[in-house]
Design a protein that fits this description.
By secondary structure, the protein is α/β, with parallel strands linked by helices. The chain contains seven helices and ten strands.
């Protein structure tokens, strides 16, 4: 089992990624989804947390060796950025979804020198809107954004297009397809459900996946 599959197995074990194809969740947009993701649950599982954070640190070293600062996305990326930065002995900060309306009205929290080489830590990539906004805020502040590392990505076309348009390299520890296949292999879902899940991933706004 490779590291992506090990992390996928861990996410399923704590229900950080939760599949329910026969009783889909309803997103705020009204879309019916067979999957719910809450990577904050990783923090409550010490063994999985250690696996994820150490692999985040290893991925920074391997993919972005020039990195000088980690920046977490608000709010779910913050603890993962903090722990990975601690492992690496590296500064960290985070980017708010909007500037504060009091005090110094910061959007970026933590010391960030102009020209600093930054890697963004994100817990989850779906349509990549918040991740791209974070990169844009850091670039406006004078940082050089080397890329993003996420724990999990859906691999949705819209997300891939946004990241490409923003010229942002994104590396994920595991992905939707891997988690779905591990779920089927371990009996978490039925093997025939994998095709339905992939159909959802490919076109979330079309609920035809429910009858596949």
């Amino acid at each position: 089992m490779n590291i992506s599959e090990k992390i996928a197995e861990g996410l399923l074990s704590v229900k950080a990624v939760f599949f329910r194809p026969d009783e889909p969740f309803t997103w705020a947009s009204g879309i019916k989804s067979p999957v719910y993701c809450d990577n904050r649950l990783i923090l409550t599982a010490p063994k999985l947390r250690a696996l994820v954070e150490n692999h985040l640190a290893e991925t920074v070293r391997a993919e972005f060796p020039e990195c000088e600062v980690l920046m977490g996305t608000s709010t779910a990326g913050i603890p993962h950025a903090a722990i990975a930065a601690h492992i690496l002995g590296m500064p960290m900060g985070y980017v708010r979804s909007g500037a504060k309306d009091h005090g110094r009205q910061n959007r970026i929290e933590g010391k960030l020198e102009p020209g600093a080489k930054v890697v963004v830590i994100e817990d989850l990539i779906s349509t990549a809107g918040s991740a791209v906004e974070t990169c844009e805020a850091l670039r406006e502040a004078g940082a050089e954004v080397l890329g993003i590392i996420s724990i999990f990505t859906y691999g949705m076309e819209k997300g891939r297009e946004r990241l490409a348009a923003a010229n942002v390299k994104c590396v994920s520890l595991t992905n939707f397809d891997t988690v779905a296949n591990v779920a089927a292999r371990t009996g978490y879902i039925r093997p025939e459900d994998v095709r339905r899940l992939i159909c959802f991933r490919d076109n979330p706004s079309d609920d035809g996946w429910r009858t596949k």
